[in-house]
Amino acid sequence: MTTGPDLSQIYQSFIVSTQQLQTVIQLFLHDMREGLAHRPSSLAMLPSYLTKPTGQENGIFLALDFGGTNVRALRVKLHGNGQYTVLERQDAPLAAPDGSYDYTASSATAAELFDFLAARLAALTTTGQHYLLGHAFSFPCRLKSIDDARLLYWTKEISTSGVVGENIVALLNGAFSRQNITHIKAAAIVNDSVSALMAAAYADTFTDIGSICGTGHNTCYLEPAFALAAGFCPMYVNMESGNFNKVSGNVFDDRLDKNSDRPGTGRLEKMCSGRYVGELLRLVLQELVQDKKILATQQPVSLPPNAITGKDMALVLSDDSQNLEQIQDWLLRYGLTQSSYADRAEIQKLAGLIIGRSARLVAATYAATLFHIDPELSHQHVIAIDGSLYEKMPGYAGTINKTLKELLGEKARQIDCRLSKDGSGAGAAIAAATTMKIHSVRNDG
Ligand code: BGC
């Protein structure tokens, strides 16, 4: 019995043509403009109260990079000449692999989560010295100032209670007080896309776009004239581009969205980011195995939701062994014991299409952002990108570059996409440094 679409139809449904990407550019540009004008738009265009660093900010600062999967606490030295050194860095998962804690679940409270974060930071410091902290918080926040950021909603399937609508800086400072941590002051809160951009712009002033291609997806850029009550000023704008909703998805995208925590939101992120690409492959495989369109001799097995991660996708794509043995071993983990070479090749092709589509769509949003800043593309631009997908997924960075060429032609030569490795952490330290003028606290860490 065959039911669903056949393999070639599924392949086709993950392919986006150049023409479709050109349409994405126009629709994205439209939503950028509407968002900037405070009209209804899928792009929130949120102010950061930050602009280009001078490159001369210096001192030792703390940074907290709260991404969604892990939290990273860093002690960073800014040398004042565009260079920085991460002096110390500690990572901890937000959900323990052994299940002993999960600060991302709705059963966890804001106090529990922020106490955990405060303790990670305190472990990096010596009492008696004072530190300013920059907090890269990788979720949509409406800022009223550099240290007042209200969480609009959770993304990436996180649902910790009591955080939405609250001021994140106050929650962290509250945790410091509860733990008698008086030597750390949260001075700046910044979206991770903005901090990745700050870290790169600290060294290179041509950097005007920042992006995260990791667990989540988002892009920010330097808006030359952002409207504030007091007038127009240059500002890094967090577009929350993962929420862009004008790319039509296929049946698997719709299924994934329907089963997610917040259906109807984060549509681009759910098509592109590391949190979801594995789930898309799982949904496709589940259907193909059930319909016996691949692994035909295999007893149907049920692949539990989220069983396939972005890391698994990287493993599948990196298998260049003659018989695709890595993929064969990987399938065994799910009880898929009967794979032929052809099955494994199909799976690799599907993974490639899902990842390729992600990179192509992301590239189209970069092209739109470039056209907004520089309609004739008459200047040089650097796009600073952080995140595991960009850094580690085979073929990802290359596909972004290729697609930019396809969309921008010769002008693509002026665009340089660069990995801003760990930029989201270091950039938060730079953001904290820019507030030095307004903080009287001693910063001699
Ligand atoms: C969040 C963004 C964040 C991005 C990358 C998205 O889910 O909404 O604020 O920048 O993930 O971490």
Topology:
Blueprint: H1 7-13, H2 18-36, E1 46-47, E2 58-66, E3 70-79, E4 84-93, H3 110-122, E5 131-137, E6 141-145, E7 148-151, H4 168-178, E8 184-190, H5 192-203, E9 207-213, E10 217-228, E11 231-238, H6 251-258, H7 267-272, H8 274-290, H9 310-318, H10 325-332, H11 341-373, E12 381-386, H12 388-392, H13 396-408, E13 415-419, H14 423-434
Parallel strand pairs: 2-5, 5-8, 9-12, 12-13
Antiparallel strand pairs: 1-11, 2-3, 3-4, 6-7, 9-10, 10-11
Helix pairs in contact: 2-11, 3-4, 5-14, 6-8, 8-9, 8-11, 11-13
The structure holds beta-D-glucopyranose (BGC).
Beta-D-glucopyranose is lined by residues 67, 138-140, 155-156, 191-193, 212, 214, 216-218, 240, 242, 269.
Explained architecture:
There is one protein chain. This protein is an alpha/beta fold. It has a domain of about 160 residues: ATPase, nucleotide binding domain (Nucleotidyltransferase, domain 5). Helix content is about 40%, strand content about 20%. The strands form 3 sheets. It has a 6-stranded mixed beta sheet, with helices on both faces. Helix 3 crosses helix 4, helix 8 packs across helix 9 and helix 8 packs antiparallel against helix 11. The longest helix has about 35 residues. It is globular and about 65 Å long. The C terminus is likely disordered. Beta-D-glucopyranose binds next to helix 5 and strand 10. The site of beta-D-glucopyranose has 17 residues, from helix 5 and strand 10.
